[in-house]
Design goal:
mainly alpha, globular, 133 residues, 9 helices
Protein backbone atom coordinates (compact mmCIF):
# COMPACT_ATOMS: atom_id res chain seq x y z
CA UNK A 1 0.00 0.00 0.00
CA UNK A 2 2.95 2.32 0.41
CA UNK A 3 3.29 2.53 -3.36
CA UNK A 4 -0.06 4.27 -3.76
CA UNK A 5 0.33 8.02 -4.17
CA UNK A 6 -3.41 8.57 -3.73
CA UNK A 7 -3.34 7.27 -0.17
CA UNK A 8 -1.38 10.35 0.91
CA UNK A 9 -4.30 12.50 -0.18
CA UNK A 10 -6.42 10.72 2.41
CA UNK A 11 -4.42 12.16 5.29
CA UNK A 12 -6.37 15.42 4.98
CA UNK A 13 -9.82 14.88 6.53
CA UNK A 14 -11.49 17.41 4.21
CA UNK A 15 -10.13 15.60 1.14
CA UNK A 16 -11.30 12.31 2.64
CA UNK A 17 -14.80 13.76 3.03
CA UNK A 18 -14.81 15.06 -0.54
CA UNK A 19 -13.60 11.76 -1.99
CA UNK A 20 -16.19 9.89 0.10
CA UNK A 21 -18.93 12.09 -1.33
CA UNK A 22 -17.64 11.71 -4.87
CA UNK A 23 -17.48 7.93 -4.51
CA UNK A 24 -15.09 5.25 -5.62
CA UNK A 25 -16.14 2.62 -8.13
CA UNK A 26 -16.59 -1.12 -7.81
CA UNK A 27 -13.18 -1.67 -9.39
CA UNK A 28 -11.59 -0.03 -6.34
CA UNK A 29 -13.22 -2.66 -4.11
CA UNK A 30 -11.72 -5.44 -6.20
CA UNK A 31 -8.26 -3.84 -6.17
CA UNK A 32 -8.27 -3.27 -2.40
CA UNK A 33 -9.70 -6.73 -1.67
CA UNK A 34 -7.04 -8.38 -3.81
CA UNK A 35 -4.17 -6.39 -2.28
CA UNK A 36 -5.37 -6.99 1.28
CA UNK A 37 -6.35 -10.61 0.60
CA UNK A 38 -9.93 -10.09 1.75
CA UNK A 39 -12.74 -12.21 0.36
CA UNK A 40 -15.84 -10.70 -1.23
CA UNK A 41 -17.77 -11.79 1.86
CA UNK A 42 -15.35 -9.92 4.15
CA UNK A 43 -15.31 -6.80 1.97
CA UNK A 44 -19.11 -6.75 1.73
CA UNK A 45 -19.40 -7.04 5.51
CA UNK A 46 -16.88 -4.23 6.03
CA UNK A 47 -18.71 -2.01 3.51
CA UNK A 48 -22.04 -2.85 5.14
CA UNK A 49 -23.61 -4.21 1.96
CA UNK A 50 -24.71 -7.72 1.11
CA UNK A 51 -22.37 -9.96 -0.81
CA UNK A 52 -25.10 -10.44 -3.39
CA UNK A 53 -25.39 -6.68 -3.91
CA UNK A 54 -21.61 -6.44 -4.23
CA UNK A 55 -21.60 -9.09 -6.95
CA UNK A 56 -24.30 -7.25 -8.90
CA UNK A 57 -22.28 -4.01 -9.07
CA UNK A 58 -20.61 -3.43 -12.45
CA UNK A 59 -16.95 -2.38 -12.15
CA UNK A 60 -17.74 1.22 -13.13
CA UNK A 61 -20.61 1.67 -10.63
CA UNK A 62 -19.97 4.46 -8.14
CA UNK A 63 -20.31 3.46 -4.50
CA UNK A 64 -22.43 5.52 -2.15
CA UNK A 65 -20.81 7.83 0.40
CA UNK A 66 -20.99 5.37 3.28
CA UNK A 67 -19.43 2.45 1.39
CA UNK A 68 -16.75 4.69 -0.11
CA UNK A 69 -15.87 6.09 3.31
CA UNK A 70 -15.57 2.59 4.77
CA UNK A 71 -13.36 1.49 1.88
CA UNK A 72 -11.13 4.53 2.40
CA UNK A 73 -10.96 3.85 6.15
CA UNK A 74 -9.95 0.28 5.35
CA UNK A 75 -7.16 1.50 3.08
CA UNK A 76 -5.93 3.93 5.72
CA UNK A 77 -6.04 1.27 8.44
CA UNK A 78 -3.95 -1.13 6.39
CA UNK A 79 -1.51 1.64 5.47
CA UNK A 80 -1.12 2.47 9.15
CA UNK A 81 -0.74 -1.21 10.01
CA UNK A 82 1.95 -1.57 7.36
CA UNK A 83 3.78 1.40 8.87
CA UNK A 84 3.56 -0.05 12.40
CA UNK A 85 4.57 -3.58 11.39
CA UNK A 86 7.03 -2.47 8.66
CA UNK A 87 5.58 -5.10 6.32
CA UNK A 88 2.06 -5.33 4.94
CA UNK A 89 2.22 -9.14 5.01
CA UNK A 90 2.98 -9.13 8.75
CA UNK A 91 0.07 -6.80 9.40
CA UNK A 92 -2.31 -8.93 7.31
CA UNK A 93 -1.33 -11.97 9.39
CA UNK A 94 -1.84 -10.02 12.62
CA UNK A 95 -5.31 -8.91 11.45
CA UNK A 96 -6.33 -12.56 11.01
CA UNK A 97 -5.29 -13.71 14.50
CA UNK A 98 -7.87 -14.06 17.24
CA UNK A 99 -6.83 -11.91 20.18
CA UNK A 100 -8.07 -11.51 23.70
CA UNK A 101 -7.97 -7.72 23.35
CA UNK A 102 -10.49 -8.11 20.49
CA UNK A 103 -12.79 -10.37 22.49
CA UNK A 104 -11.19 -13.48 21.00
CA UNK A 105 -11.99 -12.24 17.49
CA UNK A 106 -9.61 -11.16 14.75
CA UNK A 107 -9.14 -7.56 13.74
CA UNK A 108 -10.81 -8.27 10.39
CA UNK A 109 -13.93 -9.46 12.23
CA UNK A 110 -14.27 -6.09 13.99
CA UNK A 111 -14.26 -3.96 10.85
CA UNK A 112 -17.99 -4.18 10.21
CA UNK A 113 -18.46 -1.23 12.58
CA UNK A 114 -16.79 2.16 12.87
CA UNK A 115 -16.14 1.37 16.54
CA UNK A 116 -14.32 -1.78 15.41
CA UNK A 117 -12.07 0.33 13.19
CA UNK A 118 -11.33 2.54 16.21
CA UNK A 119 -10.52 -0.45 18.45
CA UNK A 120 -8.04 -1.84 15.89
CA UNK A 121 -6.52 1.60 15.27
CA UNK A 122 -6.13 2.28 18.99
CA UNK A 123 -4.46 -1.10 19.47
CA UNK A 124 -2.05 -0.28 16.64
CA UNK A 125 -1.22 3.02 18.35
CA UNK A 126 -0.38 1.12 21.53
CA UNK A 127 1.85 -1.26 19.58
CA UNK A 128 3.52 1.65 17.83
CA UNK A 129 4.36 3.26 21.17
CA UNK A 130 5.48 0.02 22.80
CA UNK A 131 2.53 -0.63 25.11
CA UNK A 132 1.85 -4.03 23.43
CA UNK A 133 4.42 -6.27 21.85
Amino acid sequence: MKSSNNINLLQNPLELIELSRKGLNRGAIDAVGKQLELSDREIARILNISERTLHRYPTDKQLDTSSTERLLKLMLLYQYGEDVFSELEDFKLWMRQSMRIFGDKSGVELLDTITGFEVVTNTLKKIEFGVYS
